């Protein structure tokens, strides 16, 4: 703890895992006295680097780039790249740590990693974004590779940015390989990858609801965020007959009591993905909806909540508000959106609660499928990928139930996900010796 005491998000993520995994280690002799958890919390490698680029006005700009190579016991490092001004070592280490467990849960051979830069894409021109991506990849290219470390997108990094980075990697290395996932379809991307995290989150919630004889049909659903994960989670909820009533961004949220249908969702996608605008623009076209500045959507009455924006975006008071309003299910689409106190509120109320490392694993799982397709040099159809995604989410749900169900029948999905994720990585580390 001392070594990382100035890294609060990383400490938060480790504490949550340690609380559930240490009792499991104590009950299982095989995992004792091998410093397994101690090894897992120490990144195999941290790379930090200067990223210098020129803005449109000709000024030189400096940012800090990172790649955390956390754990390669079960496969090449794998995890997204985040471009956001809040990016720092603590946030990326928490994400890389969680990623190790999440990737293990998918059952695919992927280790854990994460990277990014404290670059703010908001208000930047497309040329500036491209120059930044090229400058970032110029250094990152020395540390990654299709069999070493395969980054993907995350906050602030979508298909456009992955394309720019892939182009630069190819130019520098003179090789066309599956070094990044989330690529465009014309150059090795997988169908369903853009949809996968959001869809997977909803598939996971479906499995949880089914244990109570419930479904999305007729349910009111509050979604936070309005980026990649939020958009496709909403799309799947609408398809399953649920009513999505909110979206948000870091400035506020919109509430459309009548429900956001497919046509309105298409407008949200246009605002965010084509115009790179703000969610407040929604009320310009749909004035019956309201925009609430400076707040998060958890005060809106709902049956199901899908936090899909960012870490620590749902606190204890907001969790209490959700429970008081009758919410029965929370499935995290983002990474660690609920604070530890909020998680405690959900678990004490015994509602269905899924931690991101289980419920948002569909994105990286589909990235794993993209890697397989790249290695095989062929492309699967949307139906094939979606079927595999559904199967993976259902297996993750089963693994959580296996390790998380108590004698009363209550499933602690946090405990289940942590232990199931731990076992595979720990077994591989034990087999590989003291390394
Ligand atoms: P996007 O960049 O597409 O969207 C991010 C959304 O979250 C935006 O609406 C953004 O609003 C909001 N947001 C970002 N930072 C903050 C902040 N500090 N406070 C409040 N709101 C914020 O990212 P994704 O949809 O890809 O990612 C969302 C979450 O899902 C992240 O936690 C990510 O790690 C996680 N995730 C993503 C996966 C993927 O496949 N993309 C896979 C697994 C997890 P604004 O524009 O105002 O910043």
From TrEMBL:
InterPro entries this protein is in?
A: Aminoacid_DH-like_N_sf, Glu/Leu/Phe/Val/Trp_DH, Glu/Leu/Phe/Val/Trp_DH_C, Glu/Leu/Phe/Val/Trp_DH_dimer, Glu/Leu/Phe/Val_DH_AS, Glu_DH, Glu_Leu_Phe_Val_DH, NAD(P)-bd_dom_sf
The UniProt entry, under PROSITE patterns, shows: GLFV_DEHYDROGENASE
Q: Which GO terms describe its molecular function?
A: glutamate dehydrogenase (NADP+) activity
Q: Do you know which SMART domains this protein is assigned to? A: ELFV_dehydrog (SM00839)
Looking at the Swiss-Prot or TrEMBL record, what is one Pfam family this protein matches?
ELFV_dehydrog_N
What are the Glutamate/phenylalanine/leucine/valine/L-tryptophan dehydrogenase C-terminal domain coordinates in residue numbering? 190-433
Enumerate the SUPFAM superfamilies for this protein. Answer: Aminoacid dehydrogenase-like, N-terminal domain, NAD(P)-binding Rossmann-fold domains
Q: Provide this UniProt record's keywords sorted from A to Z.
A: NAD, Oxidoreductase
Tree of life domain: Bacteria
Family matches, as Gene3D superfamilies: Glutamate Dehydrogenase, chain A, domain 3, Leucine Dehydrogenase, chain A, domain 1, NAD(P)-binding Rossmann-like Domain
Concerning NCBIfam families, the annotation shows: PRK09414.1 (NF006929)
Q: Into which family does the record put it?
A: Belongs to the Glu/Leu/Phe/Val dehydrogenases family.
- Tell me, how does this one assemble? Homohexamer.
Q: What is this protein called?
A: Glutamate dehydrogenase
């Amino acid at each position: 703890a001392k070594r990382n005491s100035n890294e609060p998000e990383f400490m938060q993520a480790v504490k949550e895992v340690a609380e559930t995994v240490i009792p499991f280690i104590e009950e299982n002799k095989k995992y004792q006295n091998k410093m397994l958890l101690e090894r897992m919390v120490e990144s195999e490698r941290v790379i930090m680097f200067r990223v210098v680029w020129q803005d449109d006005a000709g000024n030189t700009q400096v940012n800090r780039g990172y790649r955390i190579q956390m754990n390669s016991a079960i496969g090449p490092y794998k995890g997204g790249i985040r471009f956001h001004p809040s990016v720092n070592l603590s946030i990326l280490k928490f994400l890389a740590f969680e990623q190790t467990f999440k990737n293990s849960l998918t059952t695919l051979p992927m280790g854990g990693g994460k990277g990014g830069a404290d670059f703010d894409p908001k208000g930047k021109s497309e040329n500036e974004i491209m120059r930044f991506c090229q400058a970032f990849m110029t250094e990152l290219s020395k540390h990654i590779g299709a069999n070493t470390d395969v980054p993907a997108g995350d906050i602030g990094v979508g298909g456009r940015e992955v394309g720019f980075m892939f182009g630069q990697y190819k130019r520098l290395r003179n090789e066309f390989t599956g070094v990044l996932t989330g690529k465009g379809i014309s150059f090795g991307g997988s169908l369903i990858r853009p949809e996968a995290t959001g869809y997977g989150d909803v598939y996971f919630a479906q499995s949880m609801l089914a244990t109570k004889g419930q479904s999305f049909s007729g349910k009111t659903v509050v979604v936070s965020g309005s980026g990649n994960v939020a958009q496709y989670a909403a799309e799947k909820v609408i398809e399953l007959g649920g009513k999505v009533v909110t979206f948000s961004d870091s400035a506020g949220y919109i509430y459309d009591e009548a429900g956001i249908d497919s046509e309105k969702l298409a407008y949200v996608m246009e605002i965010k993905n084509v115009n790179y605008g703000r969610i407040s623009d929604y009320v310009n076209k749909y004035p019956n909806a309201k925009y609430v500045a400076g707040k998060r959507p958890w005060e809106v009455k709902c049956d199901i909540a899908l936090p899909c924006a960012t870490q620590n975006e749902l606190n204890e008071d907001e969790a209490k508000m959700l429970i008081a309003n009758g919410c029965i299910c929370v499935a995290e689409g983002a990474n660690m959106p609920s604070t530890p106190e909020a998680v405690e509120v959900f678990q004490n109320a015994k509602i269905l609660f899924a931690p991101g490392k289980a419920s948002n694993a569909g994105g990286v799982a589909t990235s794993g499928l993209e890697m397989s397709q790249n290695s095989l040099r062929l492309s699967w159809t949307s139906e094939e990928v979606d079927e595999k995604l559904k199967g993976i989410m259902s297996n993750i749900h089963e693994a959580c139930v296996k390790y998380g169900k108590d004698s009363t029948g209550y499933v602690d999905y946090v405990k289940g996900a942590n232990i199931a994720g731990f076992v595979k990585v720990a077994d591989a580390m034990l087999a590989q010796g003291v390394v």
